[in-house]
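Usage

Read records sequentially. Each one opens with the input sequence:
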Amino acid sequence: MLLEKKPAMMFCSFDIYKADNSPVKERRRSVNKPGHNGIVHELSSPDGINLGYYNVTSTVPGKVIIENTNPFIQLTYTISGNKSYEVNNGKQRLSSFKKKEYNYLFLTKEHVHLNWQPGERLEIFELGISPELMLDYLPQEHPFYALLHKSIERNEPTPMSKSNLFLQTESNNILYKMINCPLDGRYKQLYIKSKVGELLSIELDAFEQSFTTSRGRDEKPGALRSVDVERMHHARDIIASNLQSPCSLIDLAHQVGTNDAYLKRHFKEVFGTTVFGYLHLIKMNQAKELLESGVSITVVTNLIGYKHVSHFNRAFKKHFGIGPGKIRK
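and closes with the structure output:
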């Protein structure tokens, strides 16, 4: 009889409010537990901001039980892998995420279960923001504002969007720049807060557009039909499957049954980025994975389609805020 391996549970306590007044508290550590290996990088500031970067490879199911000591809003991003959140002592699925998805979650003072599956690399960002700071950023007419107030009043854990949104290239870049910020002290605190504002300005606009589109799809002239959305998902799959020899916009449009003008417009409406922006995002993430596995910069440059190492170095540093040589080290 084969016994199923149970998830290796880990426990941690989390408080969105820092206990001291130091500008930024930062911690980096390695994960070296049975079945799990990787890195963790966390930082927090007295502004009510906490950013965590987790890059873990697991051979067994993973579970972290987080004890929240105060309610907060979690901006949760999945770069690679799959994860899910459970509340009510693990009895209720709150939300689940696939590769390149994000959402905002209102989390209450309770235990939250984070789960992930073995056999894949889990790379995620978790950006916690205090309710007070979030409400300062939100205009009252934004659909998120009323939903957040309702969740706070009822003290209910809630995903702010019924369906996850696609992680945009701009957001991806900001997250990596925050975690790789070279500044210290008060300047780092100022940098992190400014980047949170930049991130929210991009994503709250995307959230509002998605909310408006989903509510008015039936009556709004020119709204995307379900068949058009399916075509864009098909186009995305073709792009991801042909990184070494990407096809032209016209060829891609023909493969999914549309024309290049519709492809460009509809793709951005569905995914929040252009076809070439998405291709660049996939290439940069693939380059990062290869570098982390020990592949040389020269080989990576050729594999992802750059002719010159210097061009690749500049593109990589612009995307992640850190040079490829430091990633490889």
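Summary fields computed downstream for this record:
- The two ends are 44 Å apart (CA to CA).
- The first strand starts at residue 8 and ends at 14.
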